[in-house]
Amino acid sequence: SSHEHKLNFKKSKEVCLTYIQDAMLQKQWKRAAEFLTFYIESLEKDFSTEYMGPSEMIWRIGTEILCHHSHSSMKEFNSFIEQMKTLGVKRYLKVCLEHAFHLLCNGLIDEAYQNLSLAESWRFGEQTAIQDKEMKLIQAYRGLLDYYSWSKQKTILLEHGQDGFEDLSVEQEMHSCFRKAAVNLREIIKIPGVWDLFVKCYVDLLEFYGDHNEARQVLNEYAYNSKFPANPNAHVYLYRFLKRHGESKKSLISALKILHDIVPSHELMIDFNTMLQKSKKRKKRRLGLEVIFAALDYAGWKENVKAWSCLARQVKQIVISEKHLDWIKQEWNSRRDWWPAFHFSRYLAKRNWQDNESLSCEKALVAGILLGKDCKYFKYVSHQGCKARVKRFRILKKFVNKYNPAYLSISG
Amino acid sequence: MEFPAALFPSYFGAGPPREEGGPAPAAGWGEHGQVLEAGTGRRQAETAFVPRRGGTGESWEPADAAAVPFLPPNASCWVPLLAPQDILYRGVLRRKLRAGKSGAALDFTKQLGHFFVDHPEDAFGSLGQLLHKNFYLGNSKLRRQARDSTIRMTALMEEIDRLEARRGCPRQHLASRLRWFSHLCRDWLFEVPLGLLADCVHEELLLQWAGLLFDDSPTAGALAWLPPEDVGACTGRLVYPGGQAMNHLYFQDVVLEELPRARGSPAQFELNGRIRQVAAARVDGEDFVGVRSDYYCGVWRVPGRTGAAPTPLQVIRTGVPASCLTVSPHLPGELAVCTQSGAVYLWSIETGLQRLRHDPQTMFFRDHSPWRWSDFTAHPRVLSCADRTGLQCLDTRAPERCHFDLFKVGEEAGCQQGERVVLPLYLGRAHPSQHLVTTQFSVYVLDERLPLVPVLKWAHMMKAPPLFAHLTPGGPGRSHKVLLGASRTQELMLLQYRGGSRSACQLVGPPQKLHSIAGCLQHLPAQLPHRHRLLQQRLGAPAAGLAAALWEDGPRESLLVFQLSEAGDVFCQRLTHEAVQPPAPTSGDEAPAAPGSSPLFEAPASSPPGLGSEEEEEEEEEEEQTFYLSNLEVIINEEEEEDAGTPAVPEEAELTQEPCASPQPSLAVPSPAAALRYRRWLKALYKVCREPPRQAWPPTLSQKRLFTRKELEAPAGPSTLHWQARQRLRQAMREGGRIQRWDPPGPQPPALLQTLEPAWGPDPLSARLTAAWSGDWWQWWEERSSFNMAQKQRALRERRRRQKRARGRRSLSASFTSSLTYQSELSEVSDAAPPPVSPSRPPVLPGEGSPPGGSPPASPAPDEALLSSQSLRCRGIPKERRKTLRDYLAVWAEGPPEPTEPPGSPASQLCIPSSQSQLSSASQSQLSSASQPRRKRPRMGF
């Protein structure tokens, strides 16, 4: 009966698909390709109402196979994709976008640009929400490519400009590229998302043409709009922009303060700490201590010499001046139960000493002050250092012994 | 801790997932996702782009044709777990339901029925006792005066029997009598209120069914690899569970080689429950191993140097099953524990448990699953907490105030509807702030510094949700290898990704499927069908754990992947990577394609040019064939398992079909070393897994109900001869052979001759047996338990007459009888331990040896008197039954001891045969009280 036939057809289709999957997952691309030629038959009698129809599967599988198959060429790939584009209206934009990605990754930027322009001009009835998003992405990527050709022309122009030779047509083209790029990039970065690449390029364009206000606004929006994800890069871009334009320390610090609040382990925290340490205000120096302590809480900073030397320097300062020992005490209070095991174990002392002498020196200083001269880390490192007759370790030992009362007041 | 200068573009939306759909078979292929400018170094010259997915990765090639057993088979026969057909309704109702597409139907009545049959005392105990007098189960008519207070149940019983026979018949109508009875009794007959019981049974059934559909108890797996301390060394440790109940924990030293081997015998610990999870982390050169079973969690410390013994540190007990145990990679002796009540604890060996959260509700939206998970993060004081709806990070120093959302099943991560978190894993060894989250559809890589937005997402296309994951971090410039494993389907997948600190995360290289345990079936030598089936079952057992070890041997690197099955078997496979090999995407093709046969897609609708139409037909045919073949295979299985195919567990059939159905160019044959391992493993398996006693045994009755052991175990201890004989016979039975030659030791000890006799006397057991076998047991019973004086007298008279007759026939032996019986009885009454003289352990010797006929004293046969064919004949036992009786007694004489029975107790209740249930309770109690004094009667000169 026809029902049975349908059922059988469906079953053999599924079996064929599992063979394809199996072959692909074992990187047997040739075998997978052979099976796929049979699977294509399933297009003819597509009874499925499933979420992913056979035409999409053929597109996905075919693309994957052609990406890995030893005998495929770009020409073959293009013709396959062109056919896939005609297979489904709903997926047209997605296929175009992926095609462009493939071309871009293979260095065929002009072809990709053509493809994107073509896709952009495609119209088909009402667009779904997903298609709308895909269209925006297509435009944005085209804008991005426009930006790259703009920057290429800019380079040419600057080089020629040095020669004292001006080319009007190049300049005109460059400006038209700017316009095309700016329009498209501006559109996408309004929508909540992660648009690091687009924002960077757009700000670059604006900065070149001197529109700093717009650039600042864009960056502020990108960093502080609550609809956007908490992207550390947004704050980093803003900070760098402010720094480039010689903004005041205060605004730089406030930008970094927010970054510190969302990502206390960001690498800019070293800069932040240095900046704060130099400050004359007590409150800022206090914040600096907090920042460096917080950064060193993270496993990724465990062996960062820079961070440890920042901390060592500040702790040393405080201990020598004998003011604000309570700052250290307060920071230490919430860490007293786990920092010794996390940073100052005997095992780490041994390993740090072997791997990185200067790290162990910085850490030993901090350990000596926070945990006293009897702590395992300090004892081991200073002993080894003195044995090896390294001068700085002798100084270190002297320092810690001298300021042992500081430890007492911190631990008390 | 650098953060990538630019991330791949993506949209960000909030709210519930919008995308519909389910598992799509090819969803993970063909997409680059997004592209990003590669490196900012020389941007002026040529802008290069890198894709989010599809970059070139490292090539890791399987070194062998299939997974190889790493350890000898787990030392016990694996009892297959609950199967769908055990609890699903089969028959009319199911067919109806299936037509209506309402899913699986649980056979609730069957389970309830099992309960009533298996635990009648609990179900009906006290009322049964009360009603004993009022229910009559005999065949005879009730006497008038009894009829007022007693009803006859026989007809009802017959009705029920008939009902059972008609089970599944669509036209069954309940007999009115049954309906009447159930109406009458439903409310009061049951000890446990029926509604309550039904609720409980139903709840349990649902739980079991949910467990069959998806069992999350082995989440993260019970296999851990403790790498060698220094990179160059090649001896690590494997931690795994074993034993029949999987409650033994083993620490096995392993030497990494081409085929890794175990060194020495493992350190072993016996635990208090089935081991669900083994988690390990290395802190300060020491490994901490956490072990989770349902109600206990324990932690061991394993010193780094090889050969040092692991020490158990602490155990905690939880009131509700624990669902998670992870070990801190930052601080020694810290673990995170979650229970199914929604509690999350930080467990420190030094300071004990600290409860961070207790919330039976899920975090982001409502989900019924009580599963919770917790893991560590880049900050040693911050834990991630997960349920099926997402992940949150909380600071243990202020768990109420300080927390943030790391992952939400929702539009933020571009999830699908119905997607749920299956396993989170902290990827600290690859990058301190990265986490892996698997769902049933996709796998995500998250960065704590950019919460909610996954830095990587890929549809993994696995058939079962990945419950196990393992990370092998790559060094600088190398890709990190992530292994995903599913439990029920044993799938194993290798993914590679790179980036996270300087550059954005990229998924590189195509995903790769590794060998499953079941896949080695086709490489094993051909087996007999029943063994093949055993193997199939054993090898197809769901996976229970996953671990991997990296082994560097000069320029060549190997990744050794260990897989544990629920049967407790550990298998291993090796992947190799040539470090010097240039990244060639084509290396996967085992043979270069012929120029003509390259897959050209110029005309997908028409026939591909590479393949001639003939060839195509052939291929098609072959495919169809294999398809039908595979179908056939499934049908066979269905028959065997009586309808195994259930709509809700579709993979089951696939798993069994996989090894033989796939028309793979069967890769290669296993290497000689692997083949040797297979053979050894098989041999060990068959030794371990003796065939269970077949049902081909003679259908013996359960003797437990007929006689107590005590009764069967007649007074004397067996002589060495008996013992010997029994040994031989038992061995013969076990081997299914027969005793070829029987040579009893020459001269018979005279004592044996003596012992022959007493059985002749009215020993109650033999008398009863005789009576039973001659068919008038009932009468004997009446005699014994008569409470009516007249009846008793009549019985006595009758017996005397019979005995006289008997004595007349064999007068000589009778003179022995009385004295010896007297002795034996005395000893029994005084309940001294083993009566010295009496023999009467039923002998095992074949009766052929005994001389037929002749008078009893003249036949000094070695057999015991009771069972000599002659004596049996004397009791009127028909010839064809004699041997059966002898065998029967021989077998049961050695039944396992029943320690629960106090030595002096009258265990007569047990000796009521089940078929004699007509006896009223009055006669039962009579019997139990009468059992002691009745022995005296024979001595009174009758």
From TrEMBL, chain A:
Listed Pfam families: TAF1_subA
GO CC, alphabetical: RNA polymerase I transcription regulator complex
Source superkingdom: Eukaryota
Biological process annotations from GO: transcription by RNA polymerase I
Protein name: TAF1A polymerase
Gene: Taf1a
